[in-house]
Specification:
Blueprint: H1 2-6, H2 10-24, H3 27-37, E1 43-45, H4 53-64, E2 81-83, H5 88-100, E3 104-108, E4 127-131, E5 138-141, E6 146-149, H6 158-171
Parallel strand pairs: 2-4, 3-4
Antiparallel strand pairs: 1-2, 5-6
Helix pairs in contact: 3-5
Bound molecules: 2-acetamido-2-deoxy-beta-D-glucopyranose.
2-acetamido-2-deoxy-beta-D-glucopyranose is lined by residues 41-42, 84, 133-134.
Length: 173
């Protein structure tokens, strides 16, 4: 037993290393590798310069639905990454990756918060935007007269269309 304490076992060393390692790698690298490991490919990282193509994609997606233009200004903190999950499973894994990287999460549906709650972190903490635009399904259950609307379904896009279809179905039957 005394020997064990004096010469830590390789397993103990490995575990210590595993615990320390996450803090050694940059949060944006960590989240990228976590997302890629989970097969989530629709995300974009904060670019290091404003000039290349990656940067164009990033700012196009970032600014796409910011309704209060004050939050597009360069002095406002930008998310380390913007993730666009395409399924519930990807959404869950995106949240897990953010939590593993100790990153705050801003969920953006239509980006309508004028206080910027869906696009900035006021406390200066590193954060990630999870944009729901690809989760925009509307399913109408006629039997129970209920409708499930995913967070990214915006009024301008799918919602009126799907509800109108269901309504027409109801009144013509
Ligand atoms: C990610 O989602 C956006 C918005 O729907 C879409 O335009 C884009 O093609 C997707 N990119 C990938 C790599 O799937």
């Amino acid at each position: 037993m005394a020997n064990l304490m004096k010469y830590p076992s390789p397993l103990f060393l490995f575990m210590s290393f595993a615990l320390v390692f996450p803090s050694l790698c940059a949060p944006e690298d960590q989240i990228t590798s976590c997302l890629t490991t989970h097969d989530i490919n629709n995300f974009t990282r904060l670019p290091s310069t404003k000039k290349d193509d990656d940067s164009k994609t990033y700012y196009k997606i970032l600014d796409f639905s910011i309704q209060n233009l004050r939050f597009t200004e360069p002095t406002i903190a930008k998310p380390l990454a913007i993730i666009l999950p395409g399924s519930l499973d990807e959404l869950v894994k995106s949240v897990i990756c953010c939590r593993e990287g100790l990153l705050e999460i801003r969920v953006r549906c239509g980006g309508h918060s004028y206080e910027g709650t869906s696009s900035v972190a006021n406390d200066g903490a590193p954060f990630v935007i999870i944009d729901m635009m690809n989760l925009n399904k509307v399913s109408v259950h006629l039997a129970t007269e209920t409708a499930w609307v995913e967070g990214g379904a915006t009024l301008a896009l799918r919602l009126p269309w799907d509800l109108a279809l269901a309504y027409n179905y109801l009144i013509s039957n």
